[in-house]
Amino acid sequence: MLDDRGMDVSSDEEHTLSNNGDASQACFILHKFTKKSSSAVEVSPREPALSVKRKRGGKQDISLSSLSPCSADEPEDCGVWRMEAFKCTWADIEANIKEVFEVLNTRIFKEVQKFIHDILFYDAQLELYLSPKNNSYPHVHGNERSSRRLHVALLCLRNIDSSDHTMTFFKLKTHLKKANYHVANLLPHNFLSKNGVGAPLRSMLKQIVGINPETTDMDILASWYRAESDAKSPIVIIIEDAELCNSKVLAEFVIILSEWIAELPLILVMGMATSGEAIRKLLPGSTTRHLHMHNFMFPSPDEYLEGIIKGVILRPFPLFTVGHDVLRFLLSQYDKYDSTVTSFIRALKMACMEHFMSQPLSFLCTISLDSPLENVDYLWRSVSVLPSMQSKQYQSDRDVDKGTVMALSQYKEQKEKWSSTVNCILAAGNLVCMDPVKVFAEILERQAGGIFLNDANSSLNSDILCNELNGKTCLIPALLKRLRDSSEFTVNKILMKWIELTEYIPEWKTEAQQILNNLASESSLINTTEFISDGCTGSTRTRQLATGINSIEDERQESIVSNGGSSEMNVSNLKDGQMRIHGDAEPLNATRLYGTPSMQKKIGVRMHGRLSASLLEQMMRKYLIPFEKLPLNEALCFQNVSSIKELLIGQPRQGIQQNIKCPFRFLKCECCNATISSSMFDSTILFHLVLQNGELANLHDLYESFSAVLRKDASEKQKKVKKAHHGNSNGATQHEVDRALVQARFCKAASELQLVGLLRMAGKKRSESVQLVL
Amino acid sequence: MEPSSPSRKRKYAVEDECNRIGAVQVGPGADQRKAASLIQLPSVESSVVGKAICLLRSRLCNHAQAHILPDAQDNKRKIYELFSETVRNGCNNSILLLGPRGCGKTMSLAQVLNKVIAEVQEEYPERLCFVRLSGLLHADDYSALREIARQLCIEHRLVFSKSASFDDNSQFLTSMLRECALSHKTVVFILDDFDLFAQMSKQKLLYNLLNTMQSKEAQALVIGVSCRLDADQLLEKRVRSRFSHRKILFNPPLADELQKILPELLILSTDSSIVDAKYVEEFNCVTQDIFKSKEMGEILHSIMAVDVSPRHLLNFLFAAVCTIDRNIGLFSLSNFKMAHAILRRQNKLESLRDVSVLELYLLVSMKRLESKEREIYNFNTIFKEYKSLHDSHSTCDLYPQEVCQRAFENLLERQLIMFADGRKSNIGIEFCPVKLLVSSYELEEGLKSSPVCPTILRQWFAHEEFK
Amino acid sequence: MRHTFECEGGKRQMGATDAEIDSPKASKLVSEDGMPTMTGECANQGNGTRTPRAVNGQSSSKRDNGSPGRETHHRRTRSRPTLPASTGPSPDQQSSHEEERERSVQEGVPGDISPDMLYKHLIDRFPARNSEIKQLLGFFGEQTDLMLPLFIYGGASTGKTSIILNALRMMNRPFAYASCRSSHTPRILFESILNQLTKHTRSSSNNFGSSKKCDKLSDFLGLLCDACHAAALEKAGAISKGSTCPLKKSGTEKVDVDKFPKPVIYLIFDNVDLLLDWSGGLRLISALMRLSEFTGMENLGLIFISSLGPDAFFSGTGMLEPIPIYMRDYTDDDLYQILLKKKPKGELYSSFLSAVLKPFSRVTRRVTELSEALERLFQKYIEPVRRGIVKPDEQGKRKLFSLIQPHITSALHQTSSFLISAHSPQVNVQKRPYGDYADLGFQLSLCSKYLLISAFICSRNPATLDATLFDSTGGRSKKRRRSSQTAVDKKEMDMQEKLLKGPGTFPLERLLAIFSCISADFSDDEEEAELALMDHCIGVKVSSDVLMQISTLINANLLYKGSSDPFEGAPRYRCNASEELIQMVSRSINFPLSRYLYRL
C-alpha cells in the first residue's frame, strides 16, 4: 500500500542524521531530507521527480515492458501500448516540469553570480583604496582587517521543507563552475558535533584542491590558490540547509574562513530554509560580527506550483488529463500537508500510473488511430461498452471507429479550449493580482460542481457571481468585479494577453480584438473635442455596446438581489445583450447618456472593463465543461480519487494495528478469530496481550502469559494441522517449547513491536515495564 | 676609541632626544635624567649600552637561576648521600623533591648530578645512566615509554626505532633494566612535574617503574620533582606502598635574602666583555643607589607581598631592564615603577574599566538580582530588571532588547559573566542561566574607576548595596 | 627572502612585501655608491651600531676612523637591518622597487628602521597605543636580546596581533606566527610553525603536505630545535656575511656562526584562549610557556596573544607566569582619532563624529561595530551635501546636525545588529503581495501551522492546564474562562518565572493531542474545514503526513527534539519559534491563539 514510503524506510535505515532521528521512533516515518542525505557524500545528483520515477517506473522497466492486463480478455499488446503510452506521456510531463524548475531557478543563480562578481570588484577597489602593502597580509592592519568581513549570501528557500531543493544547490554549483569559480558544496552532515570543524574543512579541501589532505589546514588552500596563479577567480563555499548544521561547528568554520578573507577571495553561500533572520538564532553574535549578510529569495513553492499548473496541467498536448476531483484533492493535499512541489509531482505521477495501470483503453491517449491496428475488434468492443459512448448507437465497427476518432478529436479540442480559457482567467487574475493557485483551485471546484454549465437544472446558488461557495468567499466574482472597474491600462494589457493566449478559440480572439480596437479608437477619439458631430461613427457602436452592457449589468444586479438570478434568465439577458450589441441599432439618446467628454471617457473605460468581464464570464460558461461530461473520458481522464487517496494518505499506525490485531484478514485462515492462539504471529500474540494489559504492562508478566499461550497450544496436538499452514511453524510444530526458544521469540516479538512504534520502554525508573503507544 | 668619537656621540644623543620628544611622552623624572645623560655621560656608546642590556637580559633569562636561589646546602647533601648510597651498594631508591616553583629543586639536583657524575665516573666508570622525563611532555604512557626507550638507546648507543609499539618499548625497558642490573649500572629516572605523572590514568608508568624496582633484577633510582607539596598523596595505594616515602622539602627564599640578592643580578661585572669600564662602574653605582633608596624598598615590598616566587621577581627585574632608555643606558627609579605597574595586573578591574555604559548597566542589574536572592537568572530576567531600573528613573540609556543582548554577549566574551551550566546549543542564548564572575567589591571599584559610568548608575548600585 | 619565515612558509604570501623590505636597501646601496664592494662595508657599519661588537669583530676598528663623507653616509645607513644575500636585485625586487619607493614617499617610512623611527611609524599607524607600543619595543630589545615569554591580552579588535606582527616585520626579526583558531588541532599548530621556520612550501609536488609530520609535543620539541638552529644559523650567517669582507665569506660561516650570539627567534601564538577548550589544552599552554626551557634554546622569544586575561590561564595552576601586557579598549577620544583616521575625507566626518560618537560609544566601544553603525548614519548625514542642498561650512554643519538629530536614536537602536542587505529580485519584491508568507517570509502548510501553534501552546502552558483548556465536550469556552481565570490568579508569579526561563518541553503525545484538539476546534469554527474533516483527516487521525510535518519543523529549527535513548522512551520536544512568528501564523489562518494561551 504505502510502498514508496516503504522503500524510503528501507533506504532510510542506514542514513539517519544525528539531528534527524525525528519522529521515526515515535512512529515509523521518515523525512524527505534523508532522501537527499541518503545519496552519499558530497552532492546528491538526483532530481526528486526522477528519484520517484526510478522507484516506481524502474520496477516495471526491469520487470516487463508491458503492464499487467486489467481485464481477462485483454490482448497482450494492449498492455504494451499502455506501457508506451505511459512512458511517452510521463516523459513529456517530466520534461515540462524540469523546464519550469530550470526557468525559475536560473534567475536566482544569475543573481548570485552577479552578486559574487560585484563583491569581488568592490574588494578589489577596497584594496586599491588601502595602501598597497597591506593587502598581502591578513594580519597587518587591525582596523582594515576587522572591517573586511566575510560576505555571506543567504539563499532563503522560503519553505521549511527543503525537499524541493535537493537538486538546487548542485545546480548552483555547476552554474557557478561554468563561470570558472572554485566551488565547494557542504552538506549538513559535514557539520556534526562529533567530527568537529575538521570534517567540513576536509571536504572543502577535497572538493576545491582535489586532494585528500592529511591535515585540515587552511594553509593548504591558500598555497594551492597561490599556485593557481592564472585565474584569480573566487572561492565559493555553499552550505546546504544551514539550519541542520550543528551551530557550534558552523560558527567555528565560519570564523576560520573569516580569518582568511584578507588573503583568499572567499565567499560563503548558505541555504536557509526559513528566512535570513534565522541565522541570528543559529550563530552567536561573536560570529555574526565577522559576517556581512546578503539575502536572496528563492521563488516560493506557490510560484513553482503555478509554473507547473501552467506548464503541465494546462498544456493541451498529452491527451491524458487528471480529473477535477483528483486535482482538487492533490491541491488540497499540497495546501494542507507538506506544501512541497515535489510531493505534488509525485502524486501526479501516481495518478498517471494508476490511470495507465487500471484503464484498458488508456493507450488512446497517445495512439494514432489512422495506423491499422490488429485485434481492433477488442478495441471497438471495449470502446462501445464505455458509458460515455453508450449515448450513440453504433451498428458496425466502422462507425464505432468513426465515433471514436470523432470523440477523440472532440475531446482534444475541448481540452484545448478549456486550458486556454483557464489560462485567460489566470492571466486576468494575475493582472488584478490574485493568487493563481487559489483561483485555479476555485475554478476546479466550481467546475466539479458543474456550475459553469449553462443548463437550466443547475441549482440556484450555483451562479458564477454568487460570492459564497461552500461557505467561503470565492474569488472569481471578485475577479470579475475587479476586472469590470479596472483601469484602461489594465484592460488593455489583459486583452493583449488574451489575444495571445486564445489561439484555440478564434471567436474569443476576435471578440477580444474587437474590444481592443474599440478601446483604442475610443481613447483616441475621446481626446478630440468635437464628437457630437459624427453621430454614427465607430464611437456610436461602442455607445450602443455601453448601453447594452449597462442595461444587462443593471438587470443582472437586481435579478441577483431579488435572487431570481436563475441562470437561463441571465443567459437570455446576455444573449439579447449580445444581440443588441452586435446588431446595429440606431444611435438612441447617446448625447443624453454622455454629457461631457471627461465623463464619457470614464464611462467608456468602465464600459470596456465590463465588456471584457462579461466576455470572460461568457467564456467560462461556455468552455469550462468538466471532462467527465465528454465522451471517451474514462479512457483519457483519470478520475479515481479514492485510489490516489489511499495511495497518498498513510495512517501507518492504524494500518499496522489493524493488521496485527486480525491477521486472519490477510491470511485466509478460519481458526483464529480474535481469540489468542499460538498459531498467530508472535508479535500478534504479544500485541493482544499488551492490549489486555492496558497502558502499562510488566515485562515479566507479559513473558509469562506469552509462554503460557505457546505452551497451552503446544500441548494440544490437534491444532497442529492448522498451525502448519500458517507462516510460522517453527515454535508450534514441536511438542514442548523449551524456554530459551520462547524467550527468544518473546524478545523478537517485543522488539518488532518496539520498532514499529507500538511499544516502548516505560522509562528509566520503571524499566521493568513496557508502555503501549496508541 | 679615538677622541673624535665623543662629540659625534653627543650629536647622536641630541638628535635622539629630539626624536623622542617628538614621539614619546616621557615619565616625570625623564627630563633631568636627559640633562644628566648629556652632561655627565658624554661617551656612552649605544652599542655598549646594548651590550650591557643584552648581558643583563641573558642573565635574567637563562634557566639555571643559580644566582637568585638560596643554595640549599643540606638538601644538596641529602641528595648526594642518596646517590652515593644507591651507587655504592647498588640498591633501589626513590625520592621526591618537593617545593614551590622556582626555588631550586631542579637547579640543586643538577649541581649534585654534576658533582656525582664527576666523582662516580672516575671512581667506577659506566655506573650511572640517566633518564629524564617531564610530566608536561610525556603525559601519556605511550610517549613516556617511548621517550625512556629513546634515551636509553642514546645512552647505550643503540638504534632507536620510532615505530616501536607500546609493548616493544615496555619489553625493551624491562630487559634494559635487567641488563643494567647485571652490569651493576644504576638507571636514574628523573621525573619532572611528578604530580602530572601521578594524575595519569591508573598511574601505569609509575607503577611499572616502582614495581620493577621491588625485584632484585633492577637497579634504579627514581627521583620525582614536583611543585605540589602533596604530590605523594596523589599516588594510588598500590603505588604508594611501593614508594619509599623519602621527601626533601625546598623552601622559597626569604624576603630579606632576596632583598640582598636582587641587586647582584643587575650588577655588571667589570671583567665582562664591555670595554667601557667607566660606564660599567657608573651603571653599577647608579643601580646600587636606586636599590638603597626608600621608595625602591616599598616597591620591592609590594612586589614580594604579591608573590615571592623567584620567577615573579625575575619578571620584575626583566621588565625593569627592558624599560631602560637606551640613550641613557642607566637605571632610574621610574624603570622599576613601570615594571611594577606592568606586573601588577587586576584584569577584572581593567575589563570593568573598559566596558561600555550599557554593559555596566547590565552588570549592575545582575548584581541587583543577586542581592534579591535570585540565584538563577538569564538574559530575560536581567533585561527585565534593566527595564525596571529605567522605568523608575528615565535615562537616555534605555536600549531595545537586541542591542542589550549584543552587549550581553560581549560581557560573555570578556568572561565577566559565564553560563551557569554550560551553553545548551539548542536553546536561545537569552534563556540560558548565567552567573556573575565579578565580586560586588570589584564591581564597585570598577564603577568608581570607569571613566564613562554615569552617576545615576553608581547611585543605583549603592542604593541596592545599602538597602 | 630570509628573515621572514612565513614568507614561503605559507601562512601568507610574503614574496612581494619581503622584497619591498630589502629592495630599497639593495637599490639604495647600488644607487648611492656604485661599486658592490662598498655594500658590504656600509652594511657592516649599519650593523655595527646595532649589533654587539663581537658580531663584526675586526672590522669595527676600521669603522670609527671614517671620513665625514663616509660618516654622513654611515648615518644614513645607520642601524640598517641585514643585507640581502645577493646584492644583485632579483626581478621581484625590481618589480616591487617602484611601489616601494612611492610607499616610502607617501608614508614617509624610509627603509632604515631606527627604534625611534619604528616607534613613530607604529604610533601613527596605531593611534592611541603609545604606551603599549613603547613597552613592546622595550621588551623586544635588539636582535640578540633574550626575552622572557610575553602574554599580550585585550578585547577584540584592539590591535594586539597587528601591532606585534607589524613591529616584528619592520624590525626584520625572524618569527613564526600561528593562530590557534585556524590551526585547530595541536598537529596543525606544530606543523604550521615548523613550516614557517623551515620555509617549507606546500605544493602539488608534495601533495600540499607539511614539512614534517608531528602531532605530539615531545616530537615537536626535537623538530623545533632543528628548525630553529637552521633558522638562527641562516640569520647569523646573514649577519656574518654582512661583517666578513667578501674574500673570507667563502665557506667558513658555520665556524663563526657559533661565535655570534644567536638572534632571537620569535614564536607567536595567537588566540591562545581557544586552547582552553582543547583537551589537555591547559597542559599544552604551560608546556609552550616553558618551551625554551625544554628545548634548552635560550634564543626563543615566546609571545602569546589572548583575548582573555591571565587569570583565565594562570590562576590556580602552578605554571610560570609570563609578563602580561594589556591592550586596553579605546576611550572615546581614541575612537575619535581612529575613526577619523579611517575616513580620508576630513572635516565633515570629524564634525559628524563629534556630534554622534558619544551616544554610540555608550552602547559599544568596539571599533568594528561602531564604524559600521556610524557609516550607515554618515550616509544619511552627508546626503544633503551630496544633493547640494547644504554646503559644508559652519552653519551648514549645524544644519546637518539638526537634520541628522532625529535619525540618531533609530540608528542607535540598530547598533550592533548585523546587517542583512536584501538582494532579492524585483520579481519577488513586487510580485504576489498576497499569501501568508508575504509577512511570514516563508511558506508553511496548513497542517504544519497547526502543529507549530500547538507546539507553542505546549511550550507555553503548563501541562496541568490542558484538561481545562481542551476538554472536547461542548461549552468549553465558559469553563475554560473560569478555570483559567482562577489559574491565572493563583500562579501568576511562577508563571512569569517560567516565561522568563524559556519554553518548556513536552512529549510527542501531548503535542499530537493538542494538535488534534485545535484542528478539530478550527473545523467546527468553520464548516469548510468540516468538509476537510470529511474527505481527508486534518486533526482527526494522526496521519503519517502530520508526523512528517513534525520532522520537517524539527529540521527547520522551529521545533527542537531532545535526544532520547531507546530505553528512555519518549523524546521531549520544545517549540523554538518566537512568539511574533506564532502570532503571524495564527493570524494567517485566523486562529484565536489568545483563547488558548494562558496569558497574564
Automatic annotation (TrEMBL), chain A:
Q: Which InterPro entries does the annotation name?
A: ORC3, ORC3_N, ORC_WH_C
Q: Where is the signal peptide?
A: none
Q: Which residues form the Origin recognition complex subunit 3 winged helix C-terminal domain?
A: 653-769
**A Pfam family hit:** WHD_ORC
Record-given protein name: Origin recognition complex subunit 3
Which residues fall in a compositionally biased region of kind Basic and acidic residues? 1-16
Q: Where is the Origin recognition complex subunit 3 N-terminal domain?
A: 53-364
State the similarity comment: Belongs to the ORC3 family.
- Which GO CC annotations does the UniProt entry carry? DNA replication preinitiation complex; nuclear origin of replication recognition complex; nuclear pre-replicative complex
Sequence segments annotated as region (Disordered): 1-20
Automatic annotation (TrEMBL), chain B:
Localisation = Nucleus
Instruction: Name the predominant localization.
Output: nucleus
Q: Which source organism?
A: Ceratopteris richardii
- Which SUPFAM superfamilies would you find in this protein's record? P-loop containing nucleoside triphosphate hydrolases (SSF52540)
Q: Which family does it belong to?
A: Belongs to the ORC4 family.
Task: Tell me the organism's taxonomic lineage.
Answer: Eukaryota, Viridiplantae, Streptophyta, Embryophyta, Tracheophyta
**Gene3D superfamilies in the record, alphabetically?**
P-loop containing nucleotide triphosphate hydrolases
This one is known as: Origin of replication complex subunit 4
The record, for InterPro entries, names: AAA_16, ORC4, ORC4_C, P-loop_NTPase
Tell me the Pfam families matching this sequence: AAA_16, ORC4_C
Annotated ranges, domain Origin recognition complex subunit 4 C-terminal = 264-446
A GO cellular component annotation here is: nuclear origin of replication recognition complex
A single Gene Ontology MF term assigned here is:
DNA replication origin binding
Automatic annotation (TrEMBL), chain C:
Positions of the Origin recognition complex subunit 5 C-terminal domain: 444-597
Positions with biased composition (Polar residues): 42-60
Keyword Chloroplast annotated: yes
Q: Which residues constitute the signal peptide according to the record?
A: none
State one Pfam family annotation. ORC5_lid
Q: Which UniProt keywords apply?
A: ATP-binding, Chloroplast, DNA replication, Nucleotide-binding, Nucleus, Plastid
Q: What Gene Ontology molecular function terms does this protein carry?
A: DNA replication origin binding
Q: Which positions fall inside the ORC5 lid domain?
A: 349-401
Q: Which InterPro entries match?
A: AAA_16, ORC5, ORC5_C, ORC5_lid, P-loop_NTPase
UniProt record, GO biological process: DNA replication initiation
Looking at the record, which segments are called Disordered?
1-114, 473-492
Domain Orc1-like AAA ATPase per the UniProt entry, residue ranges:
125-294
Primary localisation category: nucleus
User: What is the annotated localization of this protein?
Assistant: Nucleus
Q: Ranges of Basic and acidic residues compositional bias? A: 1-11, 95-105
GO CC aspect terms: nuclear origin of replication recognition complex
Q: Which family does it belong to?
A: Belongs to the ORC5 family.
This chain belongs to the protein called Origin recognition complex subunit 5
Q: Which organism is it from?
A: Ceratopteris richardii
